[in-house]
Amino acid sequence: MLPEPELCAVTVYQHNGPGPGQKQDVTVAGRKVKLDRSGLVPGTGQPIEFEFDAAFGPDAPASTASKDAIDSIVQSVRIGVNGLLLVLGQSRSGKTELTHGTGAAEASSSAGDSSGFCGVAEACVRALCALLPFGSSPDASAKLSMRFLNVSG
Q1: Angstrom distance (rounded) from CA 77 to CA 44
Q2: 121 close to 100: Cβ distance less than 8 angstroms
Q3: Please, are residues 146 and 121 in contact by the beta-carbon 8 Å criterion?
């Protein structure tokens, strides 16, 4: 017998659309992501739609998508539901920077420079740690587990 699947709140962000002359295989509208399989699997001709808790297309500012993703993930984890951010985009489109940041957030903020920022993953960790009751009990503990997967084509 298979175990029950774990609950997971999913936010999808398509970081940018196709380049000039490239076919649009993924369309984001509302909470739905439409995959045009005819561009991937010859002969099927039927698009597949997936519905998520939140979905942002390439026209959405990265700041809006990341703030909403952070809020969604933190609220999900608070109630015991896994959180997932799925970022779609071409190679070198900024997906890694969005999820992991520039790595210069601490240095740039202390120097008064706003060029660096923490990514969604670090912002979620900071927000979740701020919610933990470490000061209320000397025996308080928490376990936070994160996994990352980068699929490149």
Answers
A1: 38
A2: yes
A3: yes
pLDDT tens figures, 68-81: 888 988 988 888 88
Dihedral sign for Cα atoms in the order 106, 54, 85, 126: positive
Mean residue pLDDT across the chain: 75
Q: Do 89 and 14 contact (CB within 8 A), yes or no?
A: yes
Measuring CA to CA, which residue among 91, 90, 56, 50 is closest to residue 70? 56
The pair of three-digit structure tokens given for residue 101, joined into one six-digit string: 């940041």
Which of 97, 80, 103 lies closest to 9 in space, CA to CA? Answer: 80
Does the global pTM surpass 0.90? no
Residues 84, 70: Cα–Cα separation, whole Å: 10
Sign of CA dihedral 90, 91, 92, 94: positive
Chain CA centroid to CA 5, Å: 20
Length reported for the chain: 153
